[in-house]
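Sequence in, structure out.
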Amino acid sequence: MVERVYENKFTLDGRLTPYAGISKAKVLAAKGLMEKAMSGDRVSDAIFRETVTSSDAMFNTAYLTSLNFIPQFDKAERAWSPVASVRTVPDFRPVVLQGLFGDLKGNGIGANGAAAKVPENTPYPHVTVKGQESAYASMAKHGFRFAYTWEAQVNDTIGFFDSLPSEMLAVSLDTEVAEVYDALIDGTGAERILQGGILPDDTVIPVNAAVSPTAIHQAIREESTRTVNDRMIGRASGYNVIVAVGMKDFIDYKINRPVISVVDGVTTYAPYDQGAIAGVTTIESDRLSGTEWYLIPKPGTTRRPVLELLRLRGHEAPELRVDGAQGSYVGGAAVSPFEGSFDADSIDFRFRYPVGAALWDSIYVVKSDGTGA
């Protein structure tokens, strides 16, 4: 992934908005104190502990955390990226695809999906655009609150803030994985189970067959012959087979093992044509268990998108905020964060990440519980 270069490194080109009390000079000062404290400077550590609980240094430190976190978030490897693409949506309303494969209706579209021929000096025939709603879609606000306690401040102020970006990143990536696999699993019903059949070499594949090269071949055949608006989907150029953790090595071994074609001058046919499942990649997921498995086209290999992560426009990255509602003393002096939190001697943080996923049509998915029943 190409690392993004920001022209305005303080706002990350508008992705962060410095609110009241936050300035570039204060953020740089907080950064300097943290770096010196982490290198063992006890004076800087003491100054940081004091300023972070008695001034607006807390808010500037939280802003610094976001400055460190967002670039990490952008370039992080995603476990779900081989399975799903990304779409940015404008709001929380249900998402609809417009004018894609199979959505144009009327005299302007022929039986095979081609545009109608228009004779000279005749009006163009009309078509209507029918939106495609998703089989499963979820766009939700995710988040939680957590407290920076007085005890944490006494014990390890620097460690608390130093670990925040990595903790936020881990939670963000886990949230994305959950959304993508919720869409795949919850959006694929019983009508999409592997039906089984007979392969060209007369191998019989049962319903809900265990994952194997031959079962994957049958799943591809079933998926490619399903129809959208009376037109077969056809074979994609690549597929993902998703299995439970611990199964990938066994499947990859069977898919990639060499085949002896000639023995003692006599041609020996392989028990199975591995070329029939070329372009198949095995992916493990802890969301699956036992013998269950799914087959789904790789992102970008179908005319209509299949599985997508949804991000909210203008809020594509998670956000960290500090509760600044401590108020003021009589006379106008600001109340420090710890003084303001009377009940628990803590400063409250809030993590927010609006994200979701959509399975546009489960017709592209084949699933099996692997029991052969």
